[in-house]
Write a structure and sequence with these properties.
The complex is a heterodimer of chains A (about 325) and B (about 140). Chain A is an alpha/beta fold. Chain A contains eleven helices and nine strands. In chain B, strands 2-1-3-4 form a four-stranded parallel sheet, with helices on both faces. In chain B, helix 1 crosses helix 4. Classes of the chains: A alpha/beta (about 325), B alpha/beta (about 140).
Chain lengths: ~325, ~140
């Protein structure tokens, strides 16, 4: 039996997506009977050169997690694309930008100034900032260029499938990988979202909904919500109405609101805008002043509504 | 450059009040700038914030949403729903760095042709003085 060749790689990410694959546990060991993992820098010692030397389209399925935030991320994305038959954007960052894409609310200069000059724990008397090239005695040294705007994977290369989630839940990861490896059923059309439902999270939420009205917005640290009742009705911003289900509503079971990591619903072009619409329509206010009061209690609209989807939003970044 | 800039404004007008108001302005031969491309919608409550952002992202310099006065909505409270969305959208557009003058919500009744003309005049002038939004170019320039 010819083993399928799989590759895993990461870009601008936290490593959580790698953990999501480890979460398969013993299934991962069983999986290696059927597949050969030929590239996975997070767990084994692979060099980028190894990938460069592989023939084009020699990897059957490549999973790439993380957003594209620097030239190295982009280079690896292009390399992996060339070497693979199927490229999967794995996890929220690769799919919609994820948490790294919140950097699009600021600029490279602001990030550098904050990280290398302003933070109290930074010791940088010469105020040195990262340079892409440096002339050392031994020759020229270079590091990747940091981008001003964070992109999703499909904004730099052609992507075949998407697996949402921050990180994708274990059960769904198993399903997705099995689908590729077993080859029992034909693969879904290119561009499909795998390992998620086509309906909103509210459909699988077990909480009770009555009349949806919000008189004031509360943040999770300010209250202990009733575990039986809809969180939106309790004034907590829950991204459920604007987010794909399929995650098993793990956050809601832990009495925490949905943060929207499974991305926009099918046909929704902008997750944040949809959530803004869903939330504000149920403000319990009739006059301009009352509406303004509730709107003012939403502390950070972009950070809340686009927590995971900034790269794949209509505006994509803030104007600076 | 500034002298040749003509703002592109997308106007979402509710069918029952504001579109009729715009019609009245026309039949009364009132003069007002031709910068607003009006789109007739059944109710201002139909205006999803996504539509506003889409217009801006695709090249509009401003967006005007106009509906019936509070209490006059043909569908009871569609305009109130728009008001709620608009206030939060305004706050979010501040974060995106889009000036408040670019996106306006106005109540214009079917009898207020003059008011429609006035709103279009003032909004066109405000957006003209802000200059082009050019969101796409902004994105490319800051990649």
């Amino acid at each position: 039996m010819i083993k399928q060749k799989l590759a895993f790689n990461w870009a601008s990410s936290c490593g959580g997506c790698e953990i999501a694959i480890f979460e398969l546990g013993t299934k991962l060991v069983e999986l290696t009977n059927k597949v050969e993992i030929i590239f996975w820098p997070a767990i084994m010692d692979y060099k980028y050169q190894d990938l460069e030397e592989m023939p084009d389209r020699s990897i059957d399925v490549a999973f790439m997690n993380g957003a594209i935030q620097n030239s190295e991320n982009e280079h690896m994305a292009k390399l992996l694309r060339a070497k693979s038959k199927i490229l999967v954007a794995f996890g929220s960052c690769a799919y919609t930008g994820g948490i790294p894409a919140l950097a699009n609310t600021t600029t490279r200069d602001e990030i550098f100034t904050n990280s290398y000059k302003d933070t109290p724990t930074t010791v940088n008397p010469e105020k040195t900032l990262p340079q892409t090239k440096f002339q050392a005695k031994e020759g020229e040294l270079s590091i990747p260029e940091f981008y001003n705007t964070v992109k999703s994977l499909d904004q730099v290369v052609d992507v075949d499938y998407y697996v949402p989630g921050c990180p994708p839940v274990g059960e769904q990861v198993t399903k997705v990988i099995t689908q590729f490896v077993d080859g029992l059923s034909p693969l879904p059309p290119k561009g499909s979202i795998l390992g998620a439902s086509d309906r909103s999270l509210c459909y699988e939420c077990k909480r009770v909904r009555d009349e949806r009205k919000i008189g004031r917005i509360v943040r999770t640290y300010q209250t202990i919500p009733d575990p039986q009742k809809c969180l939106l009705e309790q004034g907590i911003i829950c991204m459920g109405p604007a987010t794909r289900g399929g995650c098993g509503s793990v956050c809601l079971d832990a009495n925490m609101p949905c943060r929207g990591c499974y991305g926009p619903l099918p046909k929704a072009i902008d997750q944040g805008g949809k959530m803004l619409s869903a939330l504000s329509s149920i403000f319990d206010a009739q006059t301009e002043e009352d509406v303004q009061k509730i709107a003012d209690s939403v502390v950070d609209p972009i950070g809340t509504f686009y927590r995971f989807s900034m790269s794949r939003s209509l505006m994509r970044r803030t104007k600076k | 450059m500034a002298t040749t800039f003509e703002p592109k404004i997308v106007g979402f007008l509710c069918r029952w009040c504001s579109y009729a108001g715009a019609d009245l302005a026309g039949t009364n031969r009132m003069k007002y700038p031709s910068n607003v491309s009006s789109i007739r919608v059944n109710c201002s409550g139909r205006i999803d914030p996504v539509l506003v952002m889409k217009a801006l992202a695709l090249g509009a310099d401003g967006v005007l949403i106009a509906g019936c006065h509070p209490g006059d909505c043909h569908y009871t409270n569609g305009n109130i729903k728009t008001l709620r969305r608009f206030k939060l959208l305004q706050k979010m557009l501040d974060q995106f760095g889009i000036e408040r003058e670019r996106v306006r919500l106005e109540w214009i009744s079917a009898a207020e042709g003059e008011r429609y003309a006035q709103v279009v005049r003032s909004m066109t002038e405000q957006v003209r003085s802000l200059g082009p939004l050019n969101w796409k170019r902004e994105l490319e320039a800051t990649a």
